[in-house]
Design goal:
34% strand, 5-stranded mixed beta sheet, 9-stranded mixed beta sheet, 304 residues, alpha+beta
Length: 304
């Protein structure tokens, strides 16, 4: 069994729980997910099976898109709706659509985020949520992420009330915490805030329309039709440059040989996918760190 299964992750379980359930359903151990979603977050979670686990990182590294809701008026320990109240400040003024749009625009592009304490980032070899559960606050390394676009989904022109909420759509780089983005939106408006709901609508090239549920997967597995929904591992590499090669070069690639950089790809710094004449991805190459104009294999995907 080999390929990518675009799973719709349900609410209330972890990404690891999904992998555990799928190992039982599909009766195979070689399964991995492509980027953790919090238990309360639903949506697109591509699952790599068999040989496709070799390309999981390329899905993880690709961009993501989410639809979320931010609630202004109080913050929580987890920066989402599952946490305990930290700070409350009633919204005592009218907040206009233009003010919110200006805040969203200011947070578009490269921004700096500090991971929340309730996150899977490791500090000193320990995941932050393990510190948080013990009530220990530690210094977290800030990091740069890219917000490619933020769109306000609600159509109203103004908001007023002790707490207010509005929905947004964001396209972003890997490593972005939407919970933290919601808090940052509140800070710019002058109030504590948290993320009140979130769904991932896209991961790399996989969208909600591609996804199937755990129940549907179990049914297909029982009927022996799971192959009908598995996507080829090449789908995970759709955003990378490709180079189609002949059979002679293909043999070298399968054996992990060093190769000259093709003239057409001299200027690219991305990994390059070498593709056989039949469209099958054979290997992923990158520029050699010390030898100019030479490519070295990063992953050989097929050597038979």
């Amino acid at each position: 069994m080999e390929g990518i299964l675009p799973l719709f992750k349900p609410k209330g379980i972890t990404s690891h729980d999904c992998v555990f359930k799928l190992r039982k359903i599909l009766k195979t151990k070689k399964i991995g997910h492509t980027g953790t979603l919090d238990p309360d977050v639903t949506g697109v979670l591509p699952i790599c099976i068999g040989r496709a686990t070799k390309v999981a990182e390329y899905i993880t590294d690709a961009g993501k898109a989410y639809e979320g809701e931010v609630t202004i008026g109080f913050s929580t320990t987890t920066e989402d709706a599952t946490g305990e109240l930290v700070t409350k400040k009633a919204v005592t003024r009218l907040i206009s659509r233009q003010e919110i749009l200006a805040v969203l625009q200011s947070l578009t592009g490269e921004i700096v985020q500090t991971p929340p304490m309730f996150s899977a980032v490791k500090v000193g070899g320990v995941r932050l949520y393990e510190y948080a559960r013990k009530g220990i606050e530690v210094d977290r390394p800030s990091r740069k992420v890219n917000i490619y676009s933020i769109e306000l989904l609600d159509k109203q022109e103004e908001w007023m009330g002790e707490t207010i909420s509005f929905k947004f759509k964001v396209q972003c780089s890997k490593g972005t915490y939407i919970r933290t983005l919601a808090v940052m939106i509140g800070e710019q408006l002058g109030y504590p805030a948290h993320m009140s709901s979130l769904i991932r609508i896209q991961s790399a090239s996989f969208t909600l329309e591609d996804c199937i549920t755990l129940e549907e997967i179990a049914q297909l597995a029982e009927e022996g039709r799971i192959g009908t929904v598995l996507k080829p591992l090449e789908t995970a590499l759709s955003h990378l440059p490709k180079l189609k090669i002949n059979d002679k070069v293909a043999e070298k690639v399968k054996n992990g040989a060093l190769l000259p950089v093709p003239e057409s790809l001299i200027k690219t710094n991305e990994p390059i996918v070498f593709v056989a004449s039949n469209g099958i991805a054979l290997a992923i190459y990158a520029k050699h760190p010390t030898k100019p104009n030479v490519l070295k294999p990063v992953k050989v995907l097929r050597n038979e």
